[in-house]
Amino acid sequence: MFVQVQLDPDAVEKLVVNAADFEYALENDIKPAFGRSDESLEKFLRRGMVVWGKEVTRILEEGARLVEETVNPDAGGFVTAVLAGAPRTGKSFLAAEIARSSDFPLIKVISPGDMVGFSESAKCQLLRKAFTDAFRSKLSVLLIDNIERLLDYSPVGPRFSNLVLQALLVMLNEPPPPVCHSAILHNF
């Protein structure tokens, strides 16, 4: 089946893009480079939360205290926290809940699942970009999920990516600019 289409040679001159087109694109097509990563957080938060004990409440309260410390100008503005525990116990959920409840304008999730197939150098570049973006915002949270997988850790040996580990250690110890307040949440 052959269909012939007639093109108007003056169509380019007749094309008009107006403000409504830009508004539509902003709402539906464009994701900001800086801002909350609500879709990334939702993958951790979609099942809801059951506060099954005082320990969960204590962790959430400590997270809220760390968020307040991040905002406090006298505290230096840079806070890191590690949630460690057995696999599949809700550490990522708790970190995501703390990040979401912070109401910071920039929340970025760094997950090994987003780096499948990346070389060590590419992982380091992505980490550097995430930290640079966080330091450009006045208030930010970086949630680094599953560091063991990010480092390609294997208990047999033990083996891990020293390049990614060193990059992460340097960035975690690098102080942010004076106007920046950042919280870094990571879990093992």
Number of helices in the DSSP assignment: 8
Q: How many β-strand runs?
A: 4
Q: What CATH first level would be assigned? A: Alpha Beta
Strand order of the largest sheet: 1-4-3-2
CATH topology: Rossmann fold
**Low-confidence runs of at least 5 consecutive residues:** none
Main location: cytoplasm
GO molecular function, one term: ATP hydrolysis activity
Cofactor: Mg(2+)
Protein name: Vesicle-fusing ATPase
Structure description:
- One of its GO terms (cellular component) is Golgi stack.
- It is a single chain.
- The chain is of the alpha/beta class.
- It has a single domain (35-187), classed as 3-Layer(aba) Sandwich (Rossmann fold).
- The chain has 8 helices and 4 strands; from the N terminus they run ααααβαβαβααβ.
- Strands 1-4-3-2 form a 4-stranded parallel β-sheet, sandwiched between helices.
- It is extended and about 70 Å long.
- The mean pLDDT is 84.
Summarize the structure.
The chain is α/β, with parallel strands linked by helices and 188 residues long.
Could you name the key traits of this structure?
188 residues, alpha/beta, Rossmann fold, 8 helices, 45% helix, 13% strand, extended, ATPase_AAA_core, transport, protein transport, magnesium
Topology:
Layout: H1 11-14, H2 19-28, H3 38-45, H4 54-71, E1 78-83, H5 91-102, E2 106-110, H6 120-136, E3 139-144, H7 147-150, H8 162-173, E4 181-187
Helix pairs in contact: 3-5, 4-5, 6-8
Keywords: ATP-binding, Cytoplasm, ER-Golgi transport, Hydrolase, Magnesium, Metal-binding, Nucleotide-binding, Protein transport, Transport
Organism: Strongylus vulgaris
GO molecular function: ATP binding; ATP hydrolysis activity; metal ion binding
